[in-house]
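Exam prep: given the inputs below (a chain plus flavin-adenine dinucleotide), describe the expected output before reading on.
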Amino acid sequence: MDFQLSEEEIAIRDLARDFARGECEPGAAQRDKDEAFPVEQIRKAGELGLMGLLVPEQYGGAELSNLALSLALIEINRVDASVGVTLSVHNSLTCGSINAWGTDDLKSRYLPKLASGEWLGGYALSETNAGSDAGSLQCRADKDGDDYVITGSKAWITSGDHADVLVLFARTDPDAGNKGITAFVVETASEGLSVGKKEPKLGLRSSSTTLIHLDGVRVPAKNVLGEVGQGFKVALHTLDGGRIGIASQALGIMEACLEASMKYAREREQFGKPIAQFQPIQWKLAEMSVKIDAGRLLIYNASALKDRGERHTREAATAKLVNSRGANWCASQAVQIHGGAGYCTDFPVERYFRDARITEIYEGTTEIQKLVIARSLLRG
Ligand SMILES: Cc1cc2nc3c(=O)[nH]c(=O)nc-3n(C[C@H](O)[C@H](O)[C@H](O)COP(=O)(O)OP(=O)(O)OC[C@H]3O[C@@H](n4cnc5c(N)ncnc54)[C@H](O)[C@@H]3O)c2cc1C
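Solution:
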């Protein structure tokens, strides 16, 4: 497989790198401490065209490859995983699903605002009692004339209190199991929609994660995404792309861990020499580099399959599993290399350690990735 990057891909990677270093890095630690949403960074991302990377040019987007999105996400997450997840959900899950499943009407009403950054997108699948088992969701959507009326609650919604529009999943048929779920495009300004508790978190503290309550929210039937009863299929298809985004987040965190660890290991002296000269430290650095190289190839592979329109469910799950585990391992070793300093907030590795943890949980836990991979293998 040829992983030669195109000129466009190199340009977007470099743009994302400059954005990350110039706009995100300066206040990242403080925003994390204050749990402050990166409003300015998201505004700037819109200005730079980083909010519509997959959106077709006719709707105001950059119409780039999935590989280009992955390259951008790696650079941004290397510096600030809270900005990274906000942009990953927006680009992969919201824009990605509207673009893949929306009617021309839905695309022209929502994609231009999302691609320009005027609007921020969210993705509302999970509920308090329906996480890994998303097919058991209880939020109801009942047909009433030309509208659906949605009632229920959604849990852990990334950017829930800042999003203007959500791709939201609700049950249109209580007796049809997974086939009774429908996807809707829901504006958060709709009457009856309110933002609930903002979750205090271990990591990604500057990204917001909230409950969303829907009390008789009227959504026009023309805002159904895909077909009625096809929502679970929309969710699974979209998550294949989203998982490549989270794998890219994890890879960015790994790269940040290696960079910080190399710098510290060269500077810190014990027993009369830099700790980089001790073999146990060198082994940790080498192992980090191996995980980064392997993880990158898996991301490129899954992205390339998606770009060619080929099935990539197993490859996306594999990329997420390997990179998210790698991020947790690298972040733990980065703290170890920094010793006591790594446990304190003066160095960024403690933030990387906290941020890495979520990558094994959202958009399907590590255990669920294994189920997805095994099912794909056994299906033959
Ligand atoms: C910061 C954050 C942001 C999030 N953002 C979003 C968002 O924007 N939109 C959204 O819809 N959701 C979001 N989520 C929800 C996230 O996707 C879920 O938390 C995740 O899918 C796991 O579901 P759960 O928390 O209910 O865990 P559970 O499903 O209760 O799982 C608990 C444990 O049991 C294991 N387990 C469950 N079922 C099985 C099984 N069959 N076999 C083996 N092990 C199993 C799991 O792997 C896990 O270890 C977010 C969550 C967080 C924390």
